[in-house]
Structures are given as C-alpha cells and as structure tokens.
C-alpha cells in the first residue's frame, strides 16, 4: 500500500528549477505538469517491478482550485481551473467538489471506461474494505458506500444517490442526482 499525497498545487507554488517555465503566468500550469510527470515516474516504477497488472491505482484530488490562485491569469494562460463549473476550493459549488477521479486496475477496471455515477472520497473506506475482504464495524464509516461494482462495470447501477458537502464557512449542500440544494 502506498499513499502519495502531493501538497501541490498549493500557494505558494513550487516547481523545481529544471522544469520551471520562465513565464510566471504559467506557474500553476507548470505545477500541474510537474505532478503529472512525478505520477508518471510512479507508474514507470510499478511497470519496472512487474506489478502493473494487479495494482490498483487511484488518482484524485481533495478539492477544486483555491481562490488564492489568480483565475483570470490562469484563464489567460489557457487553463480553466474549475472547467465549466461554478465555485472553487472551500465553497459548496461544483468547482470546489467535482474533481478528477481516475482508477487503474487492469484485472478489474476496463481501460477507457467512464462513469457519471456519483461517488465521494468517503467511499474509499468501504471500497477498500470490500476489495480486501475486511469488515468495517457499524460504528465506523457510516456514510461510506463501496463503489467496487462501478469499478468492475462502469455501466453498473450507481451505488449512492446523494452526498452532503460543506464549505469552509459552514454552509452545506446536498447533491441528489443532477440536483443540488445549497443551504
């Protein structure tokens, strides 16, 4: 088991000198590209060790882009930090909570498959427990729902209908299917 949390791209941005683009307007983009390169090195090592066929890899992030980033500057450099969604890190809108989630597990996940099913990172507990056959006590991870069936078949029935999110200021939102109630 390896848990590899990058502290980037938090402000202030850091990119090693040998990959830094001299244009400071590209610092955020360069940071993302650097993370991509480093994750690629992990993939290369897994292949080198001949572990890639039975290694489950998840690549995700905990939230959307920080409002400390200069969104206008990022957009001018060709990067839409929240894609088409409203909001950012620390708020209840999709730009703060709808984040990439990529899974690779050649013996289970079909390469190139996609799902629009709603999952939450709180579901990693139940999913890991189901994969490993570990029983989670009733009093732990009560909100976690395994999405292993979605990994096995992207067209499977969604494993959850709704999820609750919270902003840094204490506001809550409930997402249910394609609807979201912001409180």
Structure write-up:
By secondary structure, the chain is an alpha+beta fold. Helix content is 26%, strand content 12%. It has 5 helices and 5 strands. It has helices at residues 27-48, 71-76, 94-97, 123-132, 148-152; strands at 57-60, 101-104, 162-166, 172-176, 179-182. It has a 3-stranded antiparallel beta sheet, with no helix packed on it. A two-stranded antiparallel ribbon has the order 1-2. Strand 4 and strand 5 (179-182) form a beta hairpin. The longest helix is centred in the N-terminal third of the chain and has 22 residues, at 27-48. The protein is globular and about 50 Å long.
Concise structural overview:
With 183 residues, the chain is α+β, with helices and mostly antiparallel strands. It has helices at residues 27-48, 71-76, 94-97, 123-132, 148-152, and strands at residues 57-60, 101-104, 162-166, 172-176, 179-182.
List the SSEs and their pairings.
Layout: H1 27-48, E1 57-60, H2 71-76, H3 94-97, E2 101-104, H4 123-132, H5 148-152, E3 162-166, E4 172-176, E5 179-182
Antiparallel strand pairs: 1-2, 3-4, 4-5
Mean pLDDT: 90
Per DSSP, the total helix count is 5
Helical fraction: 25-40%
User: How many extended strands?
Assistant: 5
Low-confidence stretches: none
| Class from helix and strand fractions | alpha+beta
> Largest beta sheet, briefly?
3 strands, antiparallel
What is the general shape? globular
Distance N to C terminus: 38 Å
- Enumerate the strands of the largest sheet in spatial order, edge to edge or round the barrel: 3-4-5
Order of helices and strands: HEHHEHHEEE
**Percent strand:** 5-15%
- Rounded radius of gyration (Å): 18 Å
């Amino acid at each position: 088991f390896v848990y590899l949390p990058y502290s980037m791209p938090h402000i202030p941005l850091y990119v090693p000198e040998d990959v830094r683009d001299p244009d400071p307007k590209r610092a955020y983009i360069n940071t993302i590209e650097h993370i991509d390169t480093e994750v690629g090195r992990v993939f290369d090592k897994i292949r080198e060790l001949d572990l890639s066929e039975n290694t489950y890899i998840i690549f995700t992030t905990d939230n959307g882009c920080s409002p400390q980033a200069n969104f206008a500057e990022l957009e001018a450099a060709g990067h839409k930090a929240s894609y088409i969604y409203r909001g950012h890190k620390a708020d209840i809108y999709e730009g703060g909570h709808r984040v990439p989630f990529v899974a690779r597990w050649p013996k289970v996940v079909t390469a190139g498959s996609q799902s629009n099913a709603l999952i939450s990172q709180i579901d990693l507990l139940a999913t890991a427990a189901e994969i490993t056959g570990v029983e989670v006590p009733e009093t732990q991870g009560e909100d976690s729902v395994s999405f292993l069936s979605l990994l096995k078949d992207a067209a499977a029935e969604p494993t959850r209908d709704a999820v609750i999110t919270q902003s840094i200021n204490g506001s809550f939102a409930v997402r249910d299917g394609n609807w979201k109630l912001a409180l």
